[in-house]
Amino acid sequence: MPDIKAIQTELRASKTDGWLFYDHHHRDPIAVRILGLGDNGMATRRWFYFIPSRGEPRKLVHRIEQGALDSLTGRKQVYAGWDELHTQLRKLLSGARKIAMQYSPENNIPYIGLVDAGTVELVRKLKKKVVTSADLVQKFEAVWTPEQLAWHLEAGEIVDRITSAAFERAAARVREGQPLTEYELQLWILERFRANGLTTVDPPVAAVQPNNGNPHYEPKPNGSRPIRAGDLLLLDIWAKCDRPGSVYYDITWVGYLGERVPEAYAKIFRIVRQARDRAIEFVREATAHGRTVHGWEVDRAAREVIRKAGYAKYFVHRTGHSIGQDVHGNGANMDGLETRDDRKIVPRTCFSIEPGIYLPEFGIRSEVNVYVGEREARVTGAIQEEILPLLG
Fold it and tell me: pTM above 0.85?
């Protein structure tokens, strides 16, 4: 069950008259999680759930799926035809003027922009002002419980060990003259996840050059490259404990299949490391002094380092993303490139800091997770300080 009183307190604080949840064919996982619906049946017909800033919630469901919201408190209204839907929706929203929905102006934050344009038009036609629920979502979806933080740290210790073991496995196979492919290493990592009680929706990434110059490279059964001596190996690994409500841990490390890391690789890593550390320090200082920080500001802190080094055009993705029950969570992203994420970083949330430089010949990224408390921000796992010489 959602914490109705807490939601109403936030609505009043933001001078918003209510929060309107809407779903059809399970399009909005945010609504499902915040409302605690779980598997709420077929959802082949539209439903609406309205939490006003004061008073009892209200729900609107179709006559043939009347039980869709029975787990939630509030007065039920039903409809069958489209004209009845419009009439009942007007009643549902009576007394409210400014309404939050999973809507993002100009779709700047796609994770939030889940309500279709036509439904937004319908609500506006009822003379309601639709505003984004982005900050509300962050507070009721992205904020972690103490238990979730503990699970994150537990997953992190295991992922760090598996990452180290994956580098060792690649090095051992090279020494034996039996190089394995990127895809084979990916499968080995997944097997170690299962053996250690971890899970992930999407598989990790193992990439050698030039594939690691593609920020979203994915090894495939056919066509992935063998890992050989002299290769720069990037591992992007994310997983969470296999428990309901658990949250992800997500890191990227790089190693070199040789005894001495070439200067061309070491130079780029130093720039990336400096950008990473500048962003971390920016968040730490602001949090310690109680200053408000927006996601785009963290991105700027890292991006400026890479710009000054002359590699701005090769830093082609945001600095970081929110982390939650999904590896890409619904809190503030560290993004001033793909969007200008102006959401505030709020206490008890976690995000990645992962600057990278992606050249045609190779790419390097260094990724850590940062958890922000009330007056302290910290990296939750190991921090890479240099490229690992794997055959040294």
Answer: yes
